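name: query_chain
kind: protein
chains: 1
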Amino acid sequence: MTSHNINVVGAGLAGCETAWQLSKKGYCVNLYEMRPQKKTEAHKTDKFAELVCSNSFRSSDHEKNAVGQLKWELNKANSFILENANLNSVPAGGALAIDREKFSSDITEKIYSNQNIKIFKEEVKNITDFKDPTVIATGPLTSDKLSNQIIAITNSENLAFFDAIAPIVYLESIDMKKAWFQSRYDKGNDENDRKAYLNCPLNEIQYKQFIDDILISSKIDFKDWEKNTPYFQSCLPIEIMAESGIETLRFGPMKPVGLRNPHKNNERPHAVVQLRPDNKEKTLYNMVGFQTKMKYASQVEVFKKIPGMENVQFARLGGIHRNTFINTPHLLSNELSLKNAPNIYFAGQITGVEGYVESTAIGLLVSYFIDQKIKNKKAIIPPPTTAIGSLYHHLLFKNELVEFQPMNVNFGLFQELPKIKGPKLKKETKKVALTSKAKEDWTNWISAINFF
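structure:
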């Protein structure tokens, strides 16, 4: 163990990743988690790395999908979170979905068993008391007291948006005479993957009635201080999507493409509600893309009209919570520490990345930056051609033309490939070229820094 102490505030995905990586280097890490002493609007347990929204880490395709490439890079860097995600995966076609209960239980047990990590179950209210390197990884549900102190320290307002949660149902309550198992276009490497999703079909009349029911349903009333908070565009509640046009949901989470109903001579439904496993036993299923701000009674009434879900039992209904993040391009240095308080670092969603895998990636990067700072070494920035590097550059290098907003990893963030003579690359070919370059540059970066 080194003589350096490091504080990590928040035991979510980013906080656990940061704490674990630094503990492997021999640092003494003080990990602070306010639950269960102080609860949040979304968490249900006091376990670490609890997944409060979807149980999906999204696509595993590391050739043609940006998040798949991001996971490839994290795996190459021996990510603690990704290792445990892989160990607790459930069938999900071409995606990585997680048994959320076993995942968080495993993370919690391993953190408690780590002799270099000391756990403090208390709310941190004053980070100015910390003189050692301190990582704020409190995520989207940072407490009001800590949020207010961050505002005071940075002399700026936090930005905020709403994040929504989809319902979870019991499989045994689904009518399998109407529903069926199939991934879109039968994607997957084996039978489990090809039947990873549960599908509930709607014809045109049922779909139009469903949209009408959503629009007239009772919604959550926001407090005055919440009313001007925008939604994150990648996590819009279904009623917000429905308000933008009757066909929006049918071209979004309810799209019927790649699916055929075996109960109706393999015809394609007009629209479909997809559900995916939420635990290894596959007794719980998550309604994909059905995050909502409808009141509980309305959710039960409306969702039970979906064919196959007439008698459905809910393990959890949908919900909505306010998310906070800082204006990272203006506030943080290249090492992701505050410009006016360099011992205070930020990691995870609070920095302005969106998604489980993205949060984990920033937690992993912060551990490297802190180690280099302690050793008086200049950190080597990850290449913008890589998935993690592209996220990092999104956070640090502000675009004066647009307002800073949270972002999932996507190919639009990757540095463009050098232009070559000849015909323009087709879309799919370009994706493969981008991920091939990312793999090469990430492998070289990992070798050069010799940290993970």
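note: The domain at 164-322 is CATH 2.40.30 (Elongation Factor Tu (Ef-tu); domain 3).
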